[in-house]
Specification:
By secondary structure, this protein is an alpha+beta fold. It folds into 2 domains: about 150 residues, Roll (Thiol Ester Dehydrase, Chain A); about 120 residues, Thiol Ester Dehydrase, Chain A (Roll), CATH 3.10.129. The chain contains 6 helices and 10 strands; from the N terminus they run E-H-H-H-E-E-E-E-E-H-H-H-E-E-E-E.
Length: about 300
């Protein structure tokens, strides 16, 4: 089914109510590699229910289906609206941003509402970029989190929408990084991370990975995203998640479980810029990273 423009800009999903608890919070932290040393008192509060802390990027999984990209959820039916549906066999997660209007609690009930906020036509043979937004509100109706993600839909170009106007990526400083920190991933990291809800067999089934052109299953992009947030927490925020207001990235290359991810960080006031590389393969896997800190 094609993209219908400008109808897609009116495309929303029904509000969804969801809950999460301490088990979900701890599973996410384990999935991005925290708590590997059970004697590390800095990371223990993220994986142990006593005085539990929540990694800010856990917002990408805690809402389960409601927190995923709007294009993956059933659209709300509106009279006269032509419903667009992407070819999900040919989509790639392009960018992700989480903005926290207040720090995430260790448990709670929330409502998520998703909508499409942008669609950019790169040409029939080049694909399209679709930008979606999911907003969480709490039981009092206050905003808790806004998740913004872009999808590069390789098979959906040529729909007649604008080609320009997509948000410009954040530019990291040209100087040498202020900090470079390595994070090793486990060979079974994707098998653990997928228990957060994304069970795409690309991350678990060797045959599916080979058919997709990879020698073996790849790590979830959002797991790599979480590891970059872990780097900011560890190196800049003294493990205080309340200091992170927003965290955004552009995905640029896959990570294989077992890779060592080196995160380069630049701090300028309340902005932390970052990129992530797998040095053994000469691959930059995250570009244009930006964290905004609370004052």
């Amino acid at each position: 089914m094609p993209i219908y423009y400008p109808d897609i800009l009116e495309q929303t999903t029904e509000p969804r109510t969801f809950t999460y608890g301490d088990k979900d919070v701890m599973l996410y932290a384990l999935g991005i590699g925290m708590g590997r040393d059970p004697m590390d008192e800095r990371e223990l509060p993220f994986v142990y229910e006593k005085d539990l802390k929540v990694v800010p990027t856990a917002a990408t999984v805690l809402a389960a289906a409601a927190g995923r990209r709007a294009g993956g959820a059933a659209p709300e039916q509106k009279p006269g609206l032509r419903v667009s549906q992407l070819n999900f066999l040919m989509v790639v997660h392009g960018e992700q941003k989480v903005e926290l209007h207040k720090p995430l609690p260790a448990a709670g009930a929330f409502t998520a509402h998703s909508r499409t906020i942008g669609a950019f036509d790169k040409g029939k043979d080049k694909g399209a970029v679709v930008v979606n937004e999911t907003v969480w509100t709490d039981e009092a109706g206050d905003k808790v989190a806004t998740l913004t993600g872009s999808t590069f839909a390789r098979g959906d170009g040529g729909f007649g929408g604008p080609s320009d106007g997509a948000p410009e990526p954040h530019q990291v400083p040209a100087r040498k990084p202020d900090i470079s920190v390595p994070f090793d991933t486990r060979p079974d990291q994707a098998l653990l991370y997928r228990l957060n809800g994304d069970r795409n067999p690309l991350h678990s089934d060797p045959d599916v990975a080979k058919r997709a052109g990879f020698p073996r299953p790849i790590l979830h992009g959002l797991c790599t995203y979480g590891i970059t947030c872990r780097a900011v927490l560890q190196e800049i925020c003294d493990y205080d998640p309340a200091r992170i207001l927003s965290h955004q990235v552009r995905f640029s290359a896959p990570v294989f479980p077992g890779d060592v991810i080196t995160v380069d960080l630049w701090k300028d006031g309340d902005v932390v810029s970052f990129e992530a590389r797998v040095l053994d393969r000469g691959a930059t896997v995250i570009r244009n990273g930006k964290t905004v800190l609370r004052a």
